[in-house]
């Protein structure tokens, strides 16, 4: 897409070369056609955007007749209209078309690029305009939200979403911290800072000799300020990060601060106060507006590993004033994170080892989502690529197109710094001197699935690492070329050696990628070329940017690009909530799934059957025709086959060596996770070379408004004022089997282990007893199985439904597992899994089994032949159709789905689409409806719908609001 002019040394040269002939970038067309504007190549349509708060029924936004391409989803057009169109709604100044939005931004970039000498000719500038417009129009990438908010308007031209502040050990600096943070919050962005320069509460004041307050006390004032600004104008909580070094004398108080507040929330909730996020009483609790992180260095981590003591140092003198047991402090950090998800961890030694400008200062903090890490009083503007746009029809990755796209995006991002405004003079000065950029991507999870690769697999990690390496290598190569045209960043001369050293570290890490398939081999090969060229050009020119890449949450802009997955995340769920033009909604199976199935070798009716099964159950377990070894390709963030926590950590570790900054991601753990589990994950993050890591254990926080169940429980818990009730507790009665009863004896083999099962029934055919025979008489296994059989038999006789046992014991995983000799249950994850599937087939009615997803071989064959598991009636109507009370899919609705879907998967989507449950308003709520499980996410403060995770934040599918920085 772009290349430097090569008719002079200006294309590669240093300061002397730039005095030569014509210089600037020569732009080549990749996406566009000469003489045809990108707008003229698409079909445009008018839509009405109306947003309703489903809880109150009130319209929160309405703009009719907005113009978008016909291939943009309703969600994308809704979020862009509500979030990014400028001007008062109803006024003549209000934007009404995507064309106006794109022109406002793109033409500002082109004008600045021409003024500052980025283009060789006006013709090159025009090609740049068309290519940038095409890529944004076709959702190939997106700038971060502040660009869409501010560029081309009368507002300050703020383009950065991420800020790092600084605070020193003085009251003037602390009060200035409050002020600067407030200005950033007011503009809708987030900021982070390190409080470790503030003396501890164990040190003395210079002026009076009294004891200092310590940083934690000053956090209280900043927290209150953030909460006030949020409630005074924003519709989301302020996004902020507070960091403290592990050797600070107040580190224990800092670690336990939010844990204590969380306990206070529980006490107040139990006393009847409204402690939900956004509740009327939550503001009485402190420290709820910030993410907290501890900066740990290698010395501390080695002390944890070796079980030795660690010194806490005074801020004023640098002397060790206290020694602590490193493992004890590590345990406190893990315990606090287990209780309330704070603090996260930032690995200071790793961060600064990859620092390109250490001569200008250490990296001490990050932005609120932990992906931007650089100098104090600095900022970073972000842009993210939609990786699925680079998947060719033949299943290969469009390497050359990806390289050209990155070139153009990096050029545009650097141009933005030439005209950008900043919230403080110090931030503006640092950003213009170091020109930090943050290119990243979204839809990695969808790309891996479409390529037939599991997220938690060596192949998946190899492709992710190769793409990340190619992206950053190309970015720095373009940055080096820009340095030869418009000069390196101002701080480069002072940091030339360390910058080159970090480039060599990236190159070495690229060489260590263990490629697995032709796809990642091709990507890694090109990445190697880009890194080598980058170093060659950079050694002569220097680099235009001190930082090039991060992996951001991509919450709102992910919806703008119609991405299935955000940032580095896997797919959230296999079934999606889809809004339709003209109103209404459908639940549809993720469009990536048919592509993945085709990639894995499935065809025709088998793909349709699997998709239909996923639409019904929300997972792939026991999907007809799907081989169990392919289950992992469809593993998601939540649900029946949720990716294990370390699967997320390993993916982060695969990509981290190829990023200038870090990764915004929270590792989710089940509610049953232990303190030791969290301690181990944090420790493994250090061992694997991450820069930062955060965790969240389901239901660890009270302040997560999941539903109105709390209000109901309050009413339910109120005692009647006058009525006295007598509660009679009935004892269960054991229903013994007759002396003579019918029984079934089944021999079975699971993964090569053989056994016998005998089941006895009551007169009415209900199961009443179970005997299992495994192993030799007198062995431990035989004894355990005898005891288990007795326990199940007694439970059945006391009235425990067989359905309950089946629910609990199917899908239980342990060895032996694998193939069975039973045609109805071909694969089993354990002996228990087999036994209770067999019992379900023998004793449960069809409807009950169908709800559990358990079918016989005959029923599965019938489904492939007729589309129904039930017997076909003489008139051709299935039993399921006769008894179903679900509404039939509207033909017009199906037509809309087909129009909005990719051609390759339209047929499958139409067949699997069905009206979404009336209680579901987002994919998170839909998944809860299908699986019966709960998704631990907050409700959107704007429209009331349930949000879903996006990096370390949450994002609303209804209106695009985020719980943190976007």
UniProtKB/TrEMBL annotation:
It catalyses: a 2'-deoxyribonucleoside 5'-diphosphate + [thioredoxin]-disulfide + H2O = a ribonucleoside 5'-diphosphate + [thioredoxin]-dithiol. Residues 160-696 form the Ribonucleotide reductase large subunit C-terminal domain. It is an enzyme of class 1 (oxidoreductase). Gene3D superfamilies: 3.20.70.20. One of its GO terms (biological process) is DNA biosynthetic process. Residues 1-21 are annotated as: Disordered. Residues 48-139 form the Ribonucleotide reductase class II vitamin B12-dependent N-terminal domain. Belongs to the ribonucleoside diphosphate reductase class-2 family. NCBIfam families: NrdJ_Z (TIGR02504), PRK06556.1 (NF005122). PANTHER family: RIBONUCLEOSIDE-DIPHOSPHATE REDUCTASE, VITAMIN B12-DEPENDENT RIBONUCLEOTIDE REDUCTASE. Catalyzes the reduction of ribonucleotides to deoxyribonucleotides. May function to provide a pool of deoxyribonucleotide precursors for DNA repair during oxygen limitation and/or for immediate growth after restoration of oxygen. This is Vitamin B12-dependent ribonucleotide reductase. The lineage of its organism: Bacteria, Bacillati, Actinomycetota, Actinomycetes, Propionibacteriales.
């Amino acid at each position: 897409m772009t290349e430097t002019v090569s008719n002079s040394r200006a294309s590669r040269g240093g300061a002397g070369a730039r005095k030569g002939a014509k210089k600037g970038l020569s732009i080549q067309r990749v996406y566009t056609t000469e003489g045809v504007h990108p707008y003229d190549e698409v079909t445009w349509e008018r839509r009405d955007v109306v947003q309703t708060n489903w809880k109150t029924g009130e319209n929160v936004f309405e703009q009719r007749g907005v113009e978008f391409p016909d291939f943009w989803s309703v969600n994308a057009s809704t979020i862009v209209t509500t979030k990014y169109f400028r001007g008062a709604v109803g006024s003549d100044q209000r934007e009404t078309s995507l064309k106006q939005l794109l022109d406002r931004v793109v033409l500002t970039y082109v004008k600045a690029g021409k003024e500052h000498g980025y283009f060789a000719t006006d013709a090159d500038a025009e090609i740049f305009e068309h290519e940038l417009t095409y890529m944004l129009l076709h959702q190939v990438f997106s700038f971060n939200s502040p660009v869409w908010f501010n560029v081309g308007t009368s507002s300050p031209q703020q383009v950065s979403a991420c800020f790092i502040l600084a605070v020193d050990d003085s009251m003037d600096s602390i009060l200035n911290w409050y002020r600067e943070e407030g200005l950033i919050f007011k503009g809708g962005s987030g900021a982070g800072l390190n409080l470790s320069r503030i003396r501890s509460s164990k040190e003395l004041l210079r002026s009076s000799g009294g004891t200092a307050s310590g940083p934690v006390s000053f956090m209280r004032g900043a927290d209150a300020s953030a909460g006030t600004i949020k409630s005074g104008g924003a519709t989301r909580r302020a996004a902020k990060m507070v960091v403290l070094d592990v050797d600070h004398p107040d580190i224990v108080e800092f670690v336990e601060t939010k844990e204590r507040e969380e306990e206070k929330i529980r006490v107040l909730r139990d006393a009847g106060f409204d402690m939900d996020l956004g509740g009327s009483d939550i503001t009485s609790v402190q420290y709820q507006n910030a993410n907290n992180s501890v900066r740990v260095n290698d010395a501390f981590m080695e002390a944890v590993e070796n079980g030795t003591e660690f010194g806490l140092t005074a801020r004023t003198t640098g002397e060790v004033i206290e020694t602590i047991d490193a493992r004890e402090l590590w345990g406190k950090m893990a315990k606090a994170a287990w209780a309330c998800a704070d603090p996260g961890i930032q690995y200071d030694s790793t961060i600064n080892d990859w620092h390109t400008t250490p001569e200008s200062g250490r990296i001490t903090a990050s932005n609120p989502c932990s992906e931007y890490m650089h100098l104090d009083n600095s900022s970073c503007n972000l842009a993210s690529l939609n990786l699925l746009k680079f998947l060719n029809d033949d299943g290969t990755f469009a390497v050359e197109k990806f390289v050209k796209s990155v070139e153009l995006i990096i050029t545009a991002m650097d141009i933005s710094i030439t005209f950008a405004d900043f919230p403080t003079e110090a931030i503006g000065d640092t950003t213009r001197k170091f020109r930090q950029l943050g290119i990243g991507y979204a839809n990695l999870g969808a790309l891996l699935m479409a390529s037939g690769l599991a997220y938690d697999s060596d192949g998946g990690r190899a492709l992710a690492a190769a793409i990340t390496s190619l992206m950053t290598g190309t970015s720095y190569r373009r940055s080096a070329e820009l340095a030869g045209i418009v000069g390196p960043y101002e701080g480069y001369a002072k940091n030339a050696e360390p910058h080159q050293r970090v480039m060599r570290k990236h190159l070495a890490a690229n060489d260590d990628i263990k490629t697995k398939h032709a796809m990642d081999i091709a990507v890694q090969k090109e990445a190697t070329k880009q890194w080598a060229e980058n170093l060659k050009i950079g050694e002569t020119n220097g680099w235009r940017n001190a930082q090039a890449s991060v992996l951001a949450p991509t919450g709102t802009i992910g919806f703008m690009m119609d991405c299935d997955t955000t940032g580095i995340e896997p797919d959230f769920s296999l079934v999606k909530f889809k809004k339709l033009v003209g109103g209404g909604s459908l639940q549809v199976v993720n469009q990536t799934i048919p592509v993945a199935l085709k990639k894995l070798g499935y065809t025709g009716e088998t793909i349709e059957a699997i998709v239909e099964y996923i639409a019904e159950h929300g997972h792939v377990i026991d999907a007809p025709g799907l081989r169990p070894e392919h289950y992992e390709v469809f593993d998601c963030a939540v649900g029946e086959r949720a990716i294990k926590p370390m699967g997320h950590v390993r993916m982060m570790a695969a990509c981290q060596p190829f990023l200038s900054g870090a990764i915004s991601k929270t590792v989710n753990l089940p509610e049953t996770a232990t303190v030791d589990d969290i301690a181990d994950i944090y420790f493994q993050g250090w061992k694997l070379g991450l820069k930062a890591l955060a965790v969240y254990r389901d239901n660890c926080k009270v302040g997560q408004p999941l539903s109105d169940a709390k209000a109901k429980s309050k009413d339910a818990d109120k005692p009647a004022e006058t009525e006295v009730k007598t509660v009679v507790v009935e004892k269960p009665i054991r229903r013994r089997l007759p002396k003579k009863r019918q029984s079934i004896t089944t021999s079975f083999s699971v993964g090569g282990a053989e056994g016998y099962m005998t089941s006895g029934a009551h007169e009415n055919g209900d199961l009443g007893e179970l005997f299992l025979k495994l192993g030799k008489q007198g062995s431990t296994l035989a004894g355990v199985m005898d005891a288990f059989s007795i326990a199940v038999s007694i439970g059945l006789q006391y009235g425990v439904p067989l359905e309950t046992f089946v629910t609990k014991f199917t899908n239980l995983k342990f060895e032996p597992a694998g193939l069975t000799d039973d045609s109805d249950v071909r694969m089993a994850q354990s002996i228990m899994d087999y036994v209770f599937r067999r019992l379900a087939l023998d004793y449960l009615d069809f409807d009950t089994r169908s709800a559990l997803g358990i079918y016989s071989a005959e029923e599965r064959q019938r489904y492939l032949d007729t589309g129904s598991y039930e017997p076909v009636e003489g008139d051709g109507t299935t039993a399921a159709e006769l008894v179903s009370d679900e509404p039939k899919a509207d033909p017009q609705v199906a037509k809309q789905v087909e129009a909005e879907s990719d051609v390759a998967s339209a047929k499958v989507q139409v067949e699997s689409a069905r009206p979404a449950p009336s209680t579901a308003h987002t994919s998170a709520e839909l998944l809860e409806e299908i699986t019966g499980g709960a998704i631990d996410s907050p409700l959107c403060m704007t429209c009331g719908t349930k949000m879903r995770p996006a990096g370390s934040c949450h994002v609303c599918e209804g209106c695009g609001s985020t719980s943190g920085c976007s």
